Amino acid sequence: MSKPSDLVARHPWNLLLLKIVALEPMNGWSISQRTAADFGWTCCRVSDGSLYPALHKLEQEGWISAEWRPSENNRRAKFIR
């Protein structure tokens, strides 16, 4: 597991992602929507090309865990906690 200072130095918005998934388990789409809604980042929305690799890296480093389960519209989605 990386040190918290390494986590912030590489990508400061990793802390934002950690804060969001600490609220409740959610999938990538929900995380993307939450950043825009809660923080008013409609002009600075994290792209899928940045979000999913960041979540994958956080999972590899042990900061988050994930499980596959049905989403609200009954599609298979990876929920992050």
For the structure shown, list the relevant keywords:
single chain; 81 residues; alpha+beta; two-stranded antiparallel sheet; 53% helix; globular
What value does the average pLDDT take? 81
Strand order of the largest sheet: 1-2
Count of DSSP helices? Answer: 4
Estimate the global geometry from the Cα principal axes.
globular
Q: Could you give a short account of the major beta sheet?
A: 2 strands, antiparallel
End-to-end span in angstroms?
Answer: 16 Å
Number of beta strands: 2
Proportion of β residues?
5-15%
Query: Given the helix and strand composition, which structural class is it?
Result: alpha+beta
As residue ranges, the low-confidence spans are: none
Helix content class: 40-55%
Q: How is the quaternary structure best described?
A: single chain
Radius of gyration: 12 Å
N-to-C series of helices and strands: HHHHEE
